[in-house]
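pasting for ref
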Amino acid sequence: MRIPFFNISAALVENNKPLVSAIYSPITEELFYAERNEGAFLNGKRIKVNDIEKLERSRLFYCVNRKYLDEFLHVFVKLRKKVLSLDRLRSAEIETAMVACGRVEAFFYIGAKIWDVVSGALIVKEARGKVTDFEGKEWNTTSKDFLASNGKIHKEIIEVVNQ
């Protein structure tokens, strides 16, 4: 199977937090980028997360590290019952960027690899979204889990996952 989603990403990190980041999708020719406290952009235009406030109207993307498959299945079943859709593109950075520009409401990754989410983390935050782990603690490069959302459904996702 040929999946046409891949990206090039880079981030400058200081004290386990990204300062500057970029994600480029060659297939769609989209360049997402952000600098701490300067906003998030897509091809030169400022972006922000969307305003959907209800989990049942939300579209989520996900990714999982195979090492955490049992934990993922537990989370997947809980969330699938509550959301409009739960899908996967197979490119964590692009999925995170989709949150930042308002195309989906959230993205989560259980057992996240830093290189898969660090660039997107800053872009979502600078697009007025929220990025934490599943305990609600601010995400940093040492966090195991990654949850990026529009901020409006963030607390509810964490509550559902931790029931």
